[in-house]
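Hi U.,

Before I forget, here's the chain from the pilot set. I'm dumping it here mostly so it's searchable later in email.
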Amino acid sequence: MSRVVVLIWFGVICSVCCAAAGQTREEKVRGDKAKVEADGFWIYNDLAKGYAEAKKTGQPILVALRCIPCEQCVKLDEDLVEKDERIKPLLEKFVRVRLISANGLDLSLFQFDTDQSFAVFILNADGTIYGRFGTRSDQRNWTDDVSIAGLAKALEGALALDKDYPANKELVAGKKGPPPDFAAPEKYPTLAGKYGSQLNYEGNVVQSCIHCHQIGDAQRQYYRDTNGTIPERVLFPYPHPKAIGLILDPEQCATVLRAEPNSLAAKAGFQAGDVIQTLAGQPPLSIGDVQWVLQQVPASGGSVQAVVKRNDKTSEVGLDLPSGWRKQDDIAWRASSWELRRMGLGAMFLKPLTPEQRAEQKLPAGTMALRAEHVGQFAPHDVAKKAGVQKDDVLISFNGHTDFQRETDLLAYALNELPVGSKVPAVFLRNGEKINVELVTR
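Structure:
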């Protein structure tokens, strides 16, 4: 029986992803379709055809999901579609399918960090996942997280796992997640009725597209509307390894560059040069697989066992994660953070002052000093504006708290410790004077 491997590349499309000069987004997505279909290297937007071709040829399938070419990570998209020489021999081992939206996506199978701009799934036809590739930890910079060289390593590792399948089925069983809240993105309450399971090529194709980050937006709003709070595993999804001090090499499968001093990773015993053989019993093909394991650890804490290859010897490493460990991650870079700001901060975008700026404002270290880089101007993102907040105002107190150092910490407090509709007193500095306002959580 032939086996089918599915590799899916997710390119998150957010509102800041602009069209190329002289093109509308509608022209850009239709142009992408024409280009890919004319080249013939990829099957365009037809996964069923890809499966049929794989069954006929015995080749695995490589599926690239790319909603509308995003300006972040666009170079990676070009390298993949234009058949970069480093991965071309590997690409030719797959039946290649390019999907361009999240409409109709099977969320029981394709569970991923919906805010990232480069993610990969590699699967068997029976739904067994061999591995994930890709991550993101910054609004613009991706080179510290993913690379074409790293993708090549992940593909090689996946092909090796597929060669041994099904004898290794138990080894990769943990790479498939629990049942989702909803079967497909368009089933979430905030998306239902607005989007269908397919794109509308007869009308405005862009408006009919469900962007990847909208899945996360819909999930967080669902919990906010249902329970009034957002669970930490949803608010802090797919924690980046660097949040626990584990810095991985983006050009390798799962190789440690360093463990930051005094971090959870360093305390566990990870060392530079360690090649992670298994994590929670699973063979990681990339940093994406490491994030998947971390995603399964409860916010209340837990232990994760790793087996690493160190100086040609095998060693065991025990990673102990305490209660609240997810909060060490940063969520402010995420596209979905704009909706979180609307819910909890009156739609302000806040950034910490630099030490030099603190000195100018005469604010001591360890106190809150978050500058309003942006204040929403239009409903429903205008709560802070209506309250009197202006761009460049510096937040120094929020509901009596003066110790939040990051916007991430403030978001977590506002969303999970203040009921919806709370009236929140806030104090800002403007030109050296204190400004008192009242914000309302949504």
